[in-house]
Design goal:
With 92 residues, this protein is mainly alpha-helical. The chain has three helices and no strands.
């Protein structure tokens, strides 16, 4: 598409049609901006969805670990098992 506009501009300049050249340039600038802005918005929406899903996963993991902590401090053996489990979870 850029080459098409380039050919049109060269043709207009060779024919000494400056006003049409300027109009063509003014049309090309917004089209170029649209080609850049739309993909950026799509990408930012994807990133927001990914962040939301990551936060949701972290929240679920935290709730699961928190639930385990509520029941794990009844006896000393349960406490040590729980802390050993916490050490192993990030690596898994």
């Amino acid at each position: 598409m850029i080459s098409l506009f380039r050919k049109i501009r060269q043709k207009l300049l060779s024919q000494n049609r400056v006003t049409r050249f300027l109009i063509n340039s003014l049309v090309e600038i917004p089209l170029f901006m649209i080609r850049i802005v739309i993909p950026l918005r799509v990408n930012s929406r994807k990133l927001k969805k990914q962040k939301a899903s990551r936060l949701e996963n972290l929240q679920q993991n935290f709730k699961g670990i928190w639930g385990k902590t509520q029941n794990s401090f009844d006896s000393p053996d349960a406490r040590t098992e729980f802390f050993l489990m916490l050490k192993q979870e990030p690596n898994a």
